[in-house]
C-alpha cells in the first residue's frame, strides 16, 4: 500500500517493530488486559482493513498475540491522523473488526477477541463516543439488539509531555507525534534527539534520529533546517559523536530529499532564507501539489493571503482534506473567521 501521508509512513516505520508495540501496550492498555496477554508472542500481520477512501485519514496495524493460556487474540491499532476526533470512529472500528473476524474464518481459525486501540495525536481533545452503543438512541427494550463494544484510546492531546510513559524509543516517538501539529517543534526536537541518542547500538540511534527528522520535515510544521542543525550540533557535542550519517548530513546541507520530501525540504530551506512565513507557504504549496496536483490560481491566491498563524491552521487541515476544492474551502473559512 502506497503511503501518501508522512504520519502514515512514520507510524508504520516505528510501530511495525513488535518491541515498540510491546512497550506501547504495556504502558497504555488497562493493566487487566496486559495481564491477560503474553506480549512476548506479538506478531505483526501485513493486511490492512481500512476502506480505500478513508486511508488519507487512518492507518491500521494488526498484531496477533497469545493469551496467557495459549489461546490466540489480536490487538488492532487504528491510527487517526486527523487534527480532530471523528465521531464515527467506533462505527468504522466495528466494520474493521468484522473484517478481521471474517479473515479468521477464511483461514479456518476460531474466532478470537480483538482489542481495538485508537491512537490519536490531534491538537484538540478527543470527544468522540468511546463505545458503539453511544452512537445510537436506543430504549432499554431494544438495547439487546445493539452491538456493545468499546475501544481503548491513546489521546496524546490529553497527556502532558512529562507524563508520557515508556522506554526511550516509545517516549521519543510519542513526543514527536504529540509535537508535530503544535507550534515550536524545534524546541521539543532537543528532547527527542537527546532521547534517541541514548539508544544502543549507536547505529540504531542514528537510524531512528534520521527517521524522525525525515518525518518532521515532511509533515507540515514550523520546523526549520537551521533549527535541525542547531539541535544536532548541540546534542552531538554533548554526546561527543555525530548524530546522523554522512549521507543525511549531505541531505541537510544540500536541502533536498528524494521523492515527496524533496519539495517539502526545499520549502523549509526557503523559509530559512526568505523568512519563515514564505517558507511555510511554499511547504504547503508543495504538499498541495503532491496530494492533488498543481494548485490553481484561486488556491495560490488564498494561501498568499494567509499570515503565518493562518498558514499553521491550514497545515492542520490540509492533510485531512479529500480534494483540492475542500482545501480551498477550508482556507477561505480560516481567512473569513479571522476577518470577523
Tell me the layout of helices and strands.
Elements: H1 6-15, H2 18-28, H3 31-36, E1 37-45, E2 58-67, E3 72-80, H4 89-106, E4 114-120, E5 152-155, H5 168-179, H6 185-197, H7 202-218, H8 225-239, H9 246-254, H10 260-274, H11 276-292, H12 297-304, H13 308-318, H14 324-339
Parallel strand pairs: 3-4, 4-5
Antiparallel strand pairs: 1-2, 2-3
Helix pairs in contact: 1-7, 5-6, 6-7, 6-8, 10-11, 11-13, 12-14, 13-14
Structure notes:
By secondary structure, this protein is an alpha/beta fold. It folds into three domains: 6-163, no CATH class; 180-272, no CATH class; 275-340, no CATH class. It has 14 helices and five strands. It has a five-stranded mixed sheet with strand order 1-2-3-4-5, with helices on both faces. Strand 3 (72-80), helix 4 and strand 4 (114-120) form a beta-alpha-beta unit. Helix 5 runs antiparallel to helix 6 (185-197) and helix 13 runs antiparallel to helix 14 (324-339).
SSE sequence, one letter per element: HHHEEEHEEHHHHHHHHHH
Distance from first to last alpha carbon: 43 Å
Q: Average the pLDDT over all residues and give the rounded result.
A: 83
Rg over CA atoms: 21 Å
DSSP helical segment count: 14
Determine the structural class based on helices, strands and strand pairing. alpha/beta
Based on Cα principal axes, name the global outline.
globular
Helix proportion: 40-55%
> Could you describe the largest sheet, including whether it forms a barrel?
5 strands, mixed
> Could you give the order of strands across the largest sheet?
1-2-3-4-5
Unreliable spans are 256-275
Quote the beta fraction: 5-15%
Instruction: Give the number of DSSP strands.
Output: 5
Amino acid at each position: 500500500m502506497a503511503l501518501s501521508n508522512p504520519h502514515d509512513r512514520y507510524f508504520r516505520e516505528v510501530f511495525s517493530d513488535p518491541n515498540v508495540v510491546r512497550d506501547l501496550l504495556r504502558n497504555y492498555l488497562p493493566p487487566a488486559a496486559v495481564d491477560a496477554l503474553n506480549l512476548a508472542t506479538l506478531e505483526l500481520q501485513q493486511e490492512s482493513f481500512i476502506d480505500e477512501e478513508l486511508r488519507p485519514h487512518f492507518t491500521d496495524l494488526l498484531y496477533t498475540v497469545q493469551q496467557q493460556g495459549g489461546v490466540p487474540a489480536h490487538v488492532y491499532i487504528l491510527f487517526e491522523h486527523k487534527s480532530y476526533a471523528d465521531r464515527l470512529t467506533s462505527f468504522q472500528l466495528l466494520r474493521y473488526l468484522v473484517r478481521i473476524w471474517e479473515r479468521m474464518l477464511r483461514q479456518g481459525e476460531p474466532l478470537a477477541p480483538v482489542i481495538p486501540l485508537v491512537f490519536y495525536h490531534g491538537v484538540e481533545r478527543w470527544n468522540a463516543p468511546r463505545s458503539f452503543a453511544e452512537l445510537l438512541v436506543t430504549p432499554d427494550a431494544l438495547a439487546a439488539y445493539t452491538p456493545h463494544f468499546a475501544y481503548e484510546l491513546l489521546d496524546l492531546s490529553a497527556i502532558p509531555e512529562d507524563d508520557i510513559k515508556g522506554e526511550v524509543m516509545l517516549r521519543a516517538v510519542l513526543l514527536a507525534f504529540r509535537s508535530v501539529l503544535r507550534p515550536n517543534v524545534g524546541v521539543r526536537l532537543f528532547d527527542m534527539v537527546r532521547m534517541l541518542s541514548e539508544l544502543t547500538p549507536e547505529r540504531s540511534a542514528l537510524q531512528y534520529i534520521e527517521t524522525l527528522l525525515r518525518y518532521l520535515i515532511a509533515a507540515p510544521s514550523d520546523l526549520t533546517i537551521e533549527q535541525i542543525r542547531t539541535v544536532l550540533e548541540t546534542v552531538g557535542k554533548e554526546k561527543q559523536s555525530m548524530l546522523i550519517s554522512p549521507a543525511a548530513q549531505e541531505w541537510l546541507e544540500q536541502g533536498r530529499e528524494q521523492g515527496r520530501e524533496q519539495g517539502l525540504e526545499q520549502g523549509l530551506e526557503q523559509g530559512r532564507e526568505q523568512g519563515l512565513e514564505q517558507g511555510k507557504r511554499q511547504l504547503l504549496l508543495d504538499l498541495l501539489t503532491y496530494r492533488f496536483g498543481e494548485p490553481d490560481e484561486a488556491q495560490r491566491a488564498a494561501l498568499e493571503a494567509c499570515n503565518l498563524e493562518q498558514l499553521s491552521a491550514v497545515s492542520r487541515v490540509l492533510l485531512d482534506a479529500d480534494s483540492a476544492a475542500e482545501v480551498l474551502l477550508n482556507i477561505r473559512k480560516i481567512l473569513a473567521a479571522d476577518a470577523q
